[in-house]
Specification:
binds adenosine-5'-triphosphate; 15 strands; nine-stranded mixed β-sheet; Rossmann fold; binds magnesium ion
Length: 389
């Protein structure tokens, strides 16, 4: 009996024409995650098989890979009835259960016994050798047997994978990553749709602290466990932000600041050959996220802006943040550039013409250029992570 991992693909199996591209990318993504592990991988159009010394370690890593429907620890035996019978008894003797059911999938149609009949035969053999009962409706243990050309696979335990598409199948987007709760969740949801990420963080030292920056890097490194390719671009935003506060009426500072952020993000997308902007905006959450604000802010760019949490409630977003382990870091109390000098009455329905008028009162283009030229790019998140916070 050979112990191995069987992987069932996620949604990618519905994309017929692209299936090979999806599978190859999935193999590559698994490869970069297992770069320090000894393993062998084989795949076809419906399944992937991995052999490794430390099966449990590999399974743990696979739980973070998008594009996987389920992960199964299985045993491969020769397609020989006596061998299958004795393997079943050996395997099930080590598991505690009262009731069971056998399900057979006969992918190899040359195998002469039909699935139902084979399940009954194997069930009878188990009943004869192990003290247990059959329950076809609610069994404690579901024993699955897959008969394929190259051998027969037996398993009892199927772990759900993350689903989604292999990361990178859609190219890369630029995630505006703040230290808050929403944007890391937005990043995770984008990765799930196959969009790989690069991050953009605006910092305003000395108004924002080094801890605030480290917090963002830590958040990036947490979501990087679903990608492996994420880098963080840190934009020195202080001068531009100070100019906004000096030249723009209080109620419009946030609107104008966000228009500047979008302008910078769009330029980074172009320079780094990315495809879209992604952020953690949620409709109605704050004044700058009313639909009118979004229209006025969004009008500085032609790029699509993806807002994965746009229609989620805060509680739904927090649920995901807990699940992906970003919540505890997100709630650390370090101020972000959006929360310093918050105006008392930010405009809820900004008027585009006013924005344009206020922006004409200072030379923001030069300040934006300066921001872009002084971006610090943090590439090795794994090394960074250990020293932070
Ligand atoms: P979050 O929305 O992530 O919880 P937040 O609530 O502090 O953080 P908002 O003021 O709601 O942020 O801003 C909306 C979105 O704008 C964020 O989700 C994020 O995508 C982006 N953003 C805000 N501040 C920054 C920043 N300093 N750097 C990069 N992106 C930012
Ligand atoms: Mg928010």
């Amino acid at each position: 009996m050979q112990k191995m991992i069987l992987i069932k693909y996620g949604e990618l199996t519905t994309k017929k024409g692209n299936r090979n591209v999806f599978i190859k990318l999935l193999v590559k993504n698994i490869g970069s995650l297992l770069n320090n592990v000894d393993y062998k991988i084989k795949y076809d159009r419906v399944r992937m098989y991995i052999e490794a010394d430390d099966i449990d370690l590999v399974i743990n890593k696979l739980k973070n890979v998008f594009g996987i429907h389920s992960i199964v620890k299985c045993y491969k035996v020769n397609t020989n009835i006596e061998e299958i019978k004795s393997s079943l008894v050996e395997l099930l003797s080590n598991i505690s259960f009262n009731t069971f059911k056998v399900e057979t999938n006969r992918a190899d149609k040359d195998f002469e016994i039909p699935s139902m009949e084979f399940s009954r035969m194997m069930g009878a053999h188990i009943l004869k050798n192990i003290n247990c009962h059959v329950d076809v409706h609610h069994p404690d243990l579901l024993v699955k047997i897959e008969i394929r050309k190259e051998g027969t696979y037996i398993y009892t335990d199927e772990i759900m994978g993350l689903g989604g598409y292999p990361v990178g199948i859609q190219g890369k987007g630029l995630l505006m990553l703040s230290g808050g709760i929403d944007s890391p969740v937005a990043g995770y949801l984008s990765l799930k749709r196959g969009i790989d990420l690069e991050c953009l963080y605006f910092e305003s030292p000395p108004h924002t602290s080094l801890e605030a920056k480290n917090k963002v890097i830590k958040l990036a490194s947490i979501i990087n466990s679903y990608s492996g390719n994420i880098r963080v671009n840190v934009v020195p935003f202080t001068k531009l932000q100070e100019a906004i506060y000096k030249n723009v009426p209080d109620s419009y500072v946030i609107t104008i600041m966000r228009r500047m952020m979008y302008r910078i993000a769009s330029e980074v997308v172009k320079r780094h050959h990315l495809k879209v902007i992604i952020n953690g905006e949620s409709v109605g959450q704050v004044a700058s996220q009313t639909l009118t604000s979004m229209v006025v802010i969004n009008s500085v760019t032609n790029l699509p802006v993806i807002r994965p949490v746009a229609c989620l409630d805060k509680l739904e977003i927090i649920d995901i943040a807990h699940k992906i382990n970003t919540y505890e870091t997100s709630i650390l109390p370090f101020e972000d550039c959006c929360t310093i000098f918050l105006p008392k009455h930010p405009v809820i329905n900004p008027i585009l013409e006013k924005c344009i008028e206020y922006e004409q009162s200072f030379d923001y283009a030069t300040l934006i250029e300066e921001c872009l030229n002084n971006i610090e790019t943090i590439t090795n998140l794994e090394e960074e992570k250990s020293d932070l916070l």
